[in-house]
Every structure is written in C-alpha cells, then in structure tokens.
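yo

u said u wanted the structure for the complex thing, so here. seqs first:
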Amino acid sequence: KAGVTQTPRYLIKTRGQQVTLSCSPISGHRSVSWYQQTPGQGLQFLFEYFSETQRNKGNFPGRFSGRQFSNSRSEMNVSTLELGDSALYLCASSLSGGLDTQYFGPGTRLTVL
Amino acid sequence: GESVGLHLPTLSVQEGDNSIINCAYSNSASDYFIWYKQESGKGPQFIIDIRSNMDKRQGQRVTVLLNKTVKHLSLQIAATQPGDSAVYFCAENRDDKIIFGKGTRLHILP
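structre next:
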C-alpha cells in the first residue's frame, strides 16, 4: 500500500505570495491532519479534515486554510506569506482520526524569502 | 500553559547499549500517548503508543513506560543500533489533537 505523498517536496516563495500544498493520504484513510514543523516551535498542529469537513483546528491565523476533497486528498493554503512561515509542512493520514495511528508524509519544505 | 516536553535535547548512546528517552507532560487529563521517530528528511514515524490505563507496553526492541503519578513517559530502546539514530518525539492526544514535545536527538556512538 502506498504511503502518504506530499507535493511539491520543496518550494520557494516571496513574502506576500500565497502557496498551496497537496497531500494524498493512504488509500482508505479518511482523516488528514496538517502540521507545521520549525526548529523553534517544533511540530504544531494546524488542522484536521475528515469527510471533507474541518473537524479540528490549531492556533494558527486565518491565513492558513485547507480543504479536503471527496477522494480524501487534501490541500493546504497559506496566503500573504511571511518570513516566519518558512517551515516543513507535514501531512498525516489515519483511518478515522481520533486514536487511530497517524502515518506521516515526507513533508513540503517551504522557504519564504 | 500545559504542554508536553522533554528532559534532554540530545542523547548519545554506545551502539549495543540500551537507550532511555524521557518525556514529561503536564495535562493530567491526557489519556493517550505516542512516541514517534523522525529520521533526517522524513516525516515522523509511529513507534509505539500507550493508553493511560496501562503502565507499560512493549514492542519490538522498544518499551514505553507511563508514570501517571509524576506525569512522566519514557521510551526504552534495547540494543541500540545505528539505524536508531533519529529525533524522537513524545506526543499526547488531547481533544483529538496530537500535541508534540520538542524532541530528543539520539546519537549512536560506534
């Protein structure tokens, strides 16, 4: 069974731009969660989608948004990029969320110049 | 605020010895804990989990211990191998959100 895939793997943007990251979960998984990883703040939960609905949200500004499609694939969007948005963005999928084991993708490395 | 944290940022262990990675948590209501391993260039990988109604759980070469009295979690890796070199995170499931600790880097000495 293929693992979680994320595209693109690397991205360079400038301040003020917006970016869209994509995540394809493991086949059969309906829950997709997004995390931001930085050296200073570590791994922080952004949001979780289940059956095309945002089910849970972390403490990030409204510039960070996401969506999930009927095939469970998910996208994350960051608008008006700031230097501090430079990070590794990780997506994880699980069967139904909750206490189900999460499987992480390799991440998208975003650099904001 | 309440958080999951780690005692040591870096741990160096001789190959073949046992490794013990510690973690403290502050939310006494947390009832589910997970350990993840993250190798360079990869996403975190699930290692083992434990629910609060248990004190100990064993996997292949790994053991997780939970001490609810002092809110302490540890990961023991038996016979540490070069492939165990990674950053290890403890995490708790709180309100269906995974809250991660800062991580401990494990160095394996030859």
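Chain B touches chain A through 21 residues (CB under 8 Å). Chain B has a mean pLDDT of 89.
cya
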